[in-house]
Amino acid sequence: MRFFEDLELGQRRELGAFTFTAENIKRFAAQFDPQRFHLDEEEGRNSLFGGLAASGWHVGCVCMKLLVADNQRLAELARGRGEPVVVGGPSPGFRDLRWLKPVLAGDTISFASEIESLRPSASRPQWGIVQARNAGTNQRGELVFSLLASAFIPRRNRG
Description:
alpha+beta, Thiol Ester Dehydrase, Chain A, 5-stranded antiparallel sheet, elongated
């Protein structure tokens, strides 16, 4: 992670990829979204999805996991260079969540995050607020998942 002043509009981070298997789709669904088309291949084939489909919440959770892992990777790189490790703040939320195409068993989704807006926090001068479009694309290059996330990022000059 970087300080607010080091971020730029349009800056893009590739977060990594994840393959959704029938096993991990069913395991997530059984615990968090037990709908028939997430739990059973035949029900999935007979649904609008046309196959065993991952829960949209599963797709979002994988995106978050990869985002956190990339932040940890960046922190280790900074630590190795002897630079301060930037610790981000909480998220005030997200909007514009879209599940654009089904994610089916066997699909590999590549996730990325691109900065869309930056502004200093009016009420907390030691923080800036970044909005980034987090998105997932399948192995065919089709956009399957998108949301606009906000996060507090520390400023280099903390007011």
